[in-house]
Amino acid sequence: MACRMASCRRHPVNSKPRHTMLLAHLPRHAVNHSTRSTRASFALALTLASSAILLAACQTPPTASEDAAAAPATKATTSPVILVSDGKLTPAGEAVRDQGLIYYKNRQDAATFHAWLPLAEAGHPETQFNLGALLQNSNELPNDDRAALGWHEKAAARGYGESNCHVGNLLRKLSRDDDSLARARNAYLRGADMGESVCMHNAAAVLLAGEGGPRDAAGGAMWLAKAAEAGLVESQLKLGTAYLHGNYGLNDPVKARHWLGKAAEAGDMNAMHNLASMLDDGHGGPKDAAAAAVLYRKAAAAGQGQSANNLGLLYRQGAGVKRDDAQAIAFFTRAIELQNFDGAVNLGDMHFLGRGTKRDRAVAAIQYKRAAENGVAWGECRLAAMMRHGEGLKRDQKAANAAESKALAALPKADCRTALSKLLR
Length: 425
Description:
It is built from 19 helices and 2 strands. The chain has helices spanning 91-105, 109-121, 125-136, 145-157, 161-174, 178-193, 197-209, 217-229, 233-245, 253-265, 269-281, 289-301, 305-317, 325-337, 342-353, 361-373, 377-389, 397-410, 420-423; strands at residues 84-85, 88-89. Helix 4 packs antiparallel against helix 5, helix 9 (233-245) packs antiparallel against helix 10 and helix 16 (361-373) runs antiparallel to helix 17 (377-389).
């Protein structure tokens, strides 16, 4: 049977404000589990535009031999030959570009830069983008964000959409003053209007945060949806999570399943977890514990600790999978390894009850303490009950009251007084 006292329960992943691509997991421990978040909202992370050199744009094969990679860069800046006409490479410009490509493939970034510099100076936007990318990420050249910004601004001014994303990111990186943030916001919006999905995502982030101008929830939600429709996985995850939690005026669990499914298909572990949670609870569609177990397993294999914990719960309950206490213990242990300490409470319960392992209340207390020390209120609640009744720990009413007080601050409806021997099954 499942524990009568609320376990450290499965929940959708939410995220806290940040400006990186890392996802933060905010566990919820409601007594009556709900798929809605306890947080009012969550902030989008800005997505970093790729700084890779665009090699695919080269339409003609290299005309120079590989041995030419060791030769000094040509003095194209002094040549009267026309390299760029109306923003496009001439045959002579293509030859210069291809020579630079040979240098680039040989990881000679300095030679690449000097070979391509005449093309960029002559107004070729793709080369301007590539020089900006080299200055952002090179194995040989020193990173120079200000110079990179200059080249990306030139490329953007000539209609090269992707450079707008870099302009926005670099402006935000170099300065947080109002003017820079406003310029970054405008750059993202220009790129978004040109169909760049990363710019759409970042435009959504700054509009929703009110960065660089007034907050615009409707506009932010629109650009987030467009980025998701364009196939950006991060946007699909955020849009699905917004529909799940009711953020930005969006509240539709059916659409949440749709967009989380898209991101899950692309391999995003947090989308897998959120979709599994919806399937597990029957939120937004039919309940399907077996399908939830499949997704929890995939997400856990990718490093999602809450999924490992939740899969352990399914094995303990025999929901969607055959009941298997040994597997439950294995996944609770894996959750702890992945820094999800809900698993420590559930592992402690297994030791307290002697399910899948020898009954050992002292070991259970160790796990509850580990959970409590890592901010899991159910760990404090279990410890309070143990100390109140002397089950696995020395009876200590004062310490029990202190632990109960900590637990109830987060879990006001929790029963931290009944003996675990009566409460757990």
